[in-house]
């Protein structure tokens, strides 16, 4: 698959989920995985009080909510996502952010409208990544920043590498591919090639994240019902997967019974030339 284009993506490869899955995503995935990255990403992008921020592919809005707290109540924070369920949950979490329907490839905003345009863990699901990054650059002011955040590859994320192998063995390649989808931009060179044409002074950073779940059962249920697998696995499939996971993934269980494993992220930003 090209790092620039997502050929004929499935719903899973586009990160599309139901409202029920979005609610579980917010309740479990955000504290287990996504929430820890918002503040470091805003720091890296240079977001400060008074900055106008656009969150592209916002999901349930963890980054946009953090930006709202940082920039102040009287400044525009806008977040776009094509998924109705994600936006519905986001809106319930914080009504002060302007949550809008939209795709990264056709952002519904005027040129030079935002100081910082950020996409956290969404670029992997864009249909046309080159066009999406060009759109992000178009709506950023001269001297502003465009920032992409992607997961490092599965070779750097041992828990999910093991989970993908387990799902492939138990549920088949389609389900395994759905869990691979978030990691398809895990190569640093691919991220650089995607973002470099958009601006100048390319900066790169790795955030050392940790995935944490209360138990293997919670990990399996969150993965199966909270994101890309939500429409692919039935209750019997989840039960079978859990039985194998509790046997084969015990190495990721800590002394206190929780699950923890490295989940690093690549953060890359460019400055829009004036």
UniProtKB/TrEMBL annotation:
Keyword line: Methyltransferase, Transferase
All residue ranges annotated as the Methyltransferase type domain in the record: 54-146
Keyword Methyltransferase: yes
Any one Gene Ontology BP term: methylation
GO function terms (MF aspect): S-adenosylmethionine-dependent methyltransferase activity
InterPro entries hit by this protein: Methyltransf_11, SAM-dependent_MTases_sf
Signal peptide: none
Descriptive protein name: Methyltransferase type 11
């Amino acid at each position: 698959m090209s790092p620039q284009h997502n050929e004929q993506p499935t719903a899973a490869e586009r990160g599309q989920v139901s409202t029920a899955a979005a609610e579980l995503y917010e309740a479990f995935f955000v504290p287990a995985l996504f929430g820890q990255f918002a503040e470091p990403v805003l720091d890296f992008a240079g977001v400060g009080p008074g900055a106008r921020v656009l969150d592209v592919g916002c999901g349930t809005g963890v980054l946009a909510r953090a930006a709202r707290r940082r920039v102040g109540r009287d400044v525009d924070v806008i977040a776009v996502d094509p998924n109705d369920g994600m936006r519905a949950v986001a809106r319930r979490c914080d009504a002060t952010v302007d949550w809008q329907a939209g795709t990264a490839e056709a952002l519904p905003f005027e040129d030079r409208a935002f100081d910082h345009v950020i996409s956290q863990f969404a670029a992997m699901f864009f249909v046309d990544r080159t066009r999406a990054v060009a759109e992000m650059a178009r709506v950023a002011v001269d001297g502003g920043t465009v920032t992409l955040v992607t997961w490092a590859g599965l070779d750097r994320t041992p828990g999910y590498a093991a989970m993908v192998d387990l799902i492939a063995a138990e549920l088949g390649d389609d389900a395994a591919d759905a869990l691979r989808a978030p990691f398809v931009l895990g190569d640093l060179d691919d991220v650089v090639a995607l973002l470099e044409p958009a601006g100048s002074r390319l900066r790169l950073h790795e955030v050392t994240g940790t995935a944490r779940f209360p138990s293997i059962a919670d990990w399996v249920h969150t993965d199966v019902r909270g994101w890309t697998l939500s429409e692919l696995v039935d209750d019997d499939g989840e039960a079978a997967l859990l039985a194998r996971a509790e046997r084969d993934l015990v190495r990721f269980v800590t002394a206190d019974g929780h699950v923890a494993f490295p989940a690093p992220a690549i953060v890359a930003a460019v400055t829009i030339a004036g």
